[in-house]
Amino acid sequence: MKFRISILAFVLLAAGSVRAGSPGYAYCGTYGSYVLMYKSVDSLEELGHLRCGEKVEILTRWVEYFQVRTQDGRVGWVGYASISATPPSTEANKNFGMTDATAARGPVVTPMTNTDVMKMAVMKLSPDVIVAKIKSSPCEFDTSTGALRKAKQAGVADKVILAMVQAPLASAPVEPKKPEFLEVKVPRFTPIEVELSANVSSDAAQDGKIVPLKVAQDVVLNGVTVVQKGSDARARVTTIKQPGFMNRPPGEFSWTMEYVVSVTGEKISTMFYSKEAATNPMAKVMGAPGPSWEFKKGKPAVVAVGQRFETMVNDDAVVKLPASQAAGPQNAGPAGQPTAQVSDGPVTKP
Predict the structure, then answer these.
(1) Are 19 and 56 in contact (CB under 8 A)?
(2) pLDDT band at 41 (very low <50, low <70, confident <90, very high)
(3) How confident is the model at residue 227 (pLDDT cuts 50, 70, 90)?
(4) Going by DSSP bridges, is the β-strand pair 83-84/23-26 parallel, antiparallel, or unpaired?
(5) pLDDT of res. 97
(6) Residue 293, φ and ψ in degrees, nearest 5
(7) What's the predicted TM-score (pTM) here?
(8) Is 124 left (phi over 0), alpha (psi -120 to 50) or beta?
(9) pLDDT over threshold 80, residue 213
């Protein structure tokens, strides 16, 4: 017992600023939700939880534990790494231990400590299992004489203690898992050239009838193809006026662009290109009027298959691509700019 008291005195002296009666605060970190408190450091029997930022009184310290008293009078032991000498800031604690929504996401690996090993020993896990866990985890073991003696007293096998001693301090963190998907933003006004997939005649035109189109050229953003040549596109007839008496006024029909289909099958809202549409805020909601054709009785207007039109993205869109697909060879253009080859066919601007 005298030997244990002398070790305790040495640890307390080494702690420097930690003194009996000094205040402390439960530290949960960014990804913790509470701190465990134990009845004793021998059995590690759970006594309760401390909320993140909860104030306690530090009574004493033994190796890697603090004995603390809570404001409601409970007395127990807490891992020294879970107690901070200063209160956490309001900003850091406002999520009560939940992940900060603005923080960068990524896998977090907590290093193994002496406490983890002793808990596994209390659970009666075999030494081989514990050693395997040590070898496959980052570790922060206290391998001082006192700490190893305590592990031995807690029933930790010699081969496990040897693995603790041989484990590198602060093992290199596990490499973050690469994202499975890549989100590519398709900004409003990104140009997309389309062409008719079939002849369209004023004789067959009806209000609301679908006009079949397809994408004429790849659309590439930041080196990633977001819309592929040949992908489906669609417009819809919105105006059909029959000719008047003696073809005065002549008949008229036109259509409005609706969408093109991305490489992942998502529909990207588009509209026909025009300077007015680019400056009119209502175009985002109503779209922009497309080309129109006049016709007379007995002389229908026919728009031939392959006729091309300039369209543009109606509102910001996001295409979610598999990372493997996004990393593949692409027809890359300047960073941040869509690219498309110059058209050889006729292009219609409304």
Answers:
(1) no
(2) confident
(3) very high
(4) antiparallel
(5) 37
(6) -130, 140
(7) 0.44
(8) left
(9) yes
Pick from 191, 301, 219: nearest CA to 254: 301
How many angstroms from the chain centroid is the CA of residue 227? 23
Nearest to 73 by CA among 42, 37, 46, 43: 37
Tell me phi and psi for residue 25, to 5 degrees.
-135, 135
Residue 213's DSSP bridge partners are 196, 233
Tell me the DSSP string of 275-330.
Answer: HHHHH-TTHHHH-----EEEEBTTB--EEPTT-EEEEEESS-EEEEEEHHHHTS--
Who contacts 296 (Cβ-Cβ below 8 Å, separation ≥6)?
243, 247, 250, 251
Q: For residues 215 and 103, what is the distance between their CA atoms, to the nearest angstrom?
A: 39
CB 169 within 8 A of CB 141: yes
DSSP structural state of residue 80 = G
CB-CB contact of 312 with 271 (8 Å): yes
pLDDT in tens, 296-311: 888 888 889 999 998 8
Maximal C-alpha separation, the chain: 119
Domains (ranges, CATH) in the chain?
2-93 (2.30.30.40), 114-166 (no CATH), 181-348 (2.40.128)
Say if CB 52 and CB 28 are below 8 A apart: yes
- Using CB atoms within 10 Å of the CB of residue 330, give its burial: 0 to 12 exposed, 13 to 18 middle, 19+ buried: middle
Q: Which DSSP state fits 112?
A: B
CA distance 82 to 64: 10
* 8 Å CB contact between 184 and 222: yes
Residue 43: burial class (beta carbons within 10 Å; 0-12, 13-18, 19+): exposed
91 SS3 class:
helix
Q: Which helix (H) or strand (E) holds 246?
A: none
